[in-house]
Amino acid sequence: MKKTLTISAAAIAAAIALAGCSAGSDAGSSATSMPGMNHGGSAMPSPSGPTTSAAAGFNDADTMFAQMMIPHHAQAVAMSDIMLKKEGIPSAVTDLATKIKAAQGPEIEKMTGWLTSWGQPTQMPTDMPSAHSMEGMMGDDDMAKLETAQGGEAAKLFLTQMIAHHEGAVMMAKTETTDGENADAVQLSKDIVSSQEAEIQEMKDLLATL
């Protein structure tokens, strides 16, 4: 399942705001992004002091991975928030939504910190065609359906949508594992593949019981 999404400034702002609300930022929310892409594989230091990731080399694949995964994760958190506000949802589904939110919120913070420390924009360049299409993203109509669905119908829809969403994230993460240079970004991509493939199976099993 593939959805095409034009990433708006508002969506990115929401993702960055979410990152800013997380505790214990290791990159410093006061760091200022510097324009331009670094093609030399060396990082530019963060004003707040670089972390290990900031000091290490990075390439365009690392930058694109973080820039794409931030709004991707932000949508998963938004979908989880929608479910956690509903009544009559099976506890196994709300537990899963809570787990997804708890995992992906800090990862947004981490990737935002990396981009800032690398001197890269947190928003994808608008002149790159691939930046507007991400696997597994829900469209506005999908999100509206999730908002209005109730009870068992909502639980089934959430699981179906999140399976597709996770499958998209796994594809993006596997690309980073292959093409990335930054050790911490590559490790995160491997962690995403491992955790989200396990959650995909968990959601398929849950869906079969509803």
What does this entry look like structurally?
With 210 residues, the protein is mainly alpha-helical. It has a domain at 56-124 and 135-210: Ferritin, core subunit, four-helix bundle (Ferritin). It has 7 helices and 2 strands; from the N terminus they run βααααβααα. The chain has helices at residues 9-21, 52-55, 60-84, 91-118, 140-148, 151-179, 183-209; strands at 2-4, 133-135. The chain has a two-stranded antiparallel sheet with strand order 1-2. α3 (60-84) packs antiparallel against α4 and α5 (140-148) runs antiparallel to α6. Mean pLDDT is 80; it is low at 1-55.
Uncertain segments:
1-55
Main sheet overview: 2 strands, antiparallel
Q: Architecture of one domain, according to CATH? A: Up-down Bundle
Radius of gyration based on Cα positions = 17 Å
Question: How does the helix and strand content classify structurally?
Answer: mainly alpha
Content of β-strand: under 5%
